[in-house]
Design a protein that fits this description.
With 443 residues, the protein is α/β, with parallel strands linked by helices. The protein contains 17 helices and 13 strands. It is globular, with a radius of gyration of 21 Å. The protein binds NADPH dihydro-nicotinamide-adenine-dinucleotide phosphate and (2Z)-2-iminopentanedioic acid.
Length: 443
């Protein structure tokens, strides 16, 4: 058995019942096998053994009071996975499905994603099994304050800098930042995704979605193609989905779908994005409302958004939302490219189908790295006590996404599978971390 297979076998045994973490471990360890064959110094220094084990895993009680005056108790998490190249960095997810497996898979992916940005940020992730849906602002604030009352002792501007993810946006970041400040009496960049009113970066809300489209646009450009005239299917209807859609429209493509956990909409004429943004960001409503606004659009509570004929698919909701059947439908309908705005939205079987059918497939750890990249730019601005303009940040984001494109295509080609950008992303992300780990000795 190869070294990486043996490490994977032990890691899977050590994390029983953790389906998502096991899936992420398997993908990465299998991709890295040829790298370890070429670089015996990595195995000699047990780089893989160290990589699969988080530096620290925190789990804590989050008690808070609801509007009825009842005490509720949730479970909070933070995984500080790898700090070889910088302070732990990664989002916080508030969703009822959150558990150790999901936090560890996200934290593990984050190591390689953050490395690809070229910026000095290590991998971390956190969250809680708290469901923000249907909660009042006061309840959200109560929860966020309690969450930060434990988390604050584990984070810091040079230690660990959380941000948003599913269920955590500007409102939640604000409440958590306020609580940190109140406890520590410090105005420092301990969270990113802050409002510009108190140290946030212009362009951070847009960065993940825009970055995704910049990367896909660059890949298309290298094939003398572009978004112009393309029909694009987007899943999700949150931060990533809506800003990705905005950039697609700007580049001349047409987004015809959005989804949430209840269903999906198909608007052949192109989604009315102003309406969707107001619905989701301001009114926090559900997509069922879209149909009363646009009666000709379709709303489906069942079936797959991937059954809509399209040129490009951008899964931007959650993990394992695009399985083999969805991939089969996309391919049958002539889809030419898939870019992952979400983390691990495509199952391994779906990815295999894309690769077999020569679909241009951009994996999440490369394609959605724009968000964390601009988070790192927010950290820089906070340290310098500066505020950069939107266009300055956006220009840097474009450069970073082009660099990621270069790195993943070069690594894929170097390892003899030019078409396999998943392989390229895993390898290119890993090499920098491995090098940093070697240089720092047995830590
Ligand atoms: P939001 O909370 O803003 O939006 C999430 C969207 O996904 C909602 O439409 C939500 O629908 C849907 N969704 C969430 N969970 C499920 C589920 N279990 N089944 C079906 N639909 C679901 O989150 P973001 O847009 O920030 O995040 C979306 C994805 O992008 C996640 O995978 C996240 O990890 C990833 N990502 C986010 C980044 C960021 O900067 N925000 C950066 C990089 C990646 P509903 O309202 O019904 O729950
Ligand atoms: O998955 C991700 O990269 C994020 N949720 C963003 C992390 C960040 O620190 O901005």
């Amino acid at each position: 058995m190869s070294y990486t297979n043996e490490v994977l076998r032990v890691a899977l045994e050590r994390n029983p019942g953790e389906a998502e973490f096991s899936q992420a471990l398997t993908e990465v360890m299998e991709a890295l096998e040829p790298v370890f064959e070429r670089h015996p110094e990595y195995a000699k220094n047990k780089i893989a053994d160290r990589l699969v084990e988080p530096e620290r895993f925190l789990m804590f009680r989050v008690p808070w009071t609801d509007d009825k005056g009842d005490i509720q108790v949730n479970r909070g998490f933070r995984v500080q996975f790898n700090s070889a190249i910088g302070p732990y960095k990664g989002g916080l997810r508030f969703h009822p499905s959150v558990n150790a497996s999901i936090i560890k898979f996200l934290g593990f992916e984050q190591i390689f994603k953050n490395s690809l940005t070229g910026l000095p940020i290590g991998g971390g992730k956190g969250g809680a099994d708290f469901d923000p849906k249907g909660k009042s602002d006061r309840e959200i604030m109560s929860f966020c304050q309690s969450f930060m009352t434990e988390l604050y002792r584990h984070i810091g501007p040079d230690t660990d800098v959380p941000a948003g993810d599913i269920g955590v946006g500007g409102r939640e970041i604000g409440y958590m930042y306020g609580q940190y400040k109140r406890i520590t009496n410090q105005c420092v960049g301990i969270l990113t995704g802050k409002d510009v009113a108190y140290g946030g970066s212009l362009g951070r809300p847009q960065a993940t979605g825009y970055g995704l489209v910049y990367l896909m646009d660059e890949l298309l450009r290298r094939r003398d193609d572009s978004f112009a005239g393309k029909t694009v299917v987007v899943s999700g209807s949150g931060n990533v989905a809506l800003y990705a859609s905005q950039k697609v429209f700007e580049l001349g493509g047409k987004v015809v779908s959005l989804s949430d956990s209840d269903g999906w909409i198909y608007d052949k004429e192109g989604i009315d994005l102003d309406f969707a943004m107001d619905l989701k960001f301001v009114r926090r409503g559900r997509l069922t409302e879209y149909k009363s606004h646009r009666p000709d659009a379709e709303y489906h509570a069942d079936g797959l958004v991937w059954s809509i004929p399209c040129d490009i698919a951008l899964p931007c909701a959650t993990q394992n939302e695009l399985l083999k059947d969805g991939a089969g439908l996309l391919i049958k309908n002539g889809c030419l490219a898939v870019g992952e705005g979400a983390n691990m939205p495509c199952s391994p079987e779906a990815v295999e189908l894309f690769l077999e059918n020569k679909i241009m497939y951009a994996p999440g750890k490369a394609a959605n790295a724009g968000g964390v990249a601009v988070s790192a730019l927010e950290m820089t601005q906070n340290s310098m006590r500066q505020c950069w303009s939107f266009s300055e940040v956006d220009a840097k984001l474009q450069t970073i996404m082009c660099n990621i494109c270069d790195q993943i295509t070069a690594a894929a080609a170097e390892y003899g599978q030019a078409h396999n950008l998943a392989l390229g992303a895993n390898i290119a992300g890993f090499v920098r971390v491995a090098q940093a780990m070697l240089l720092q000795g047995a830590v």
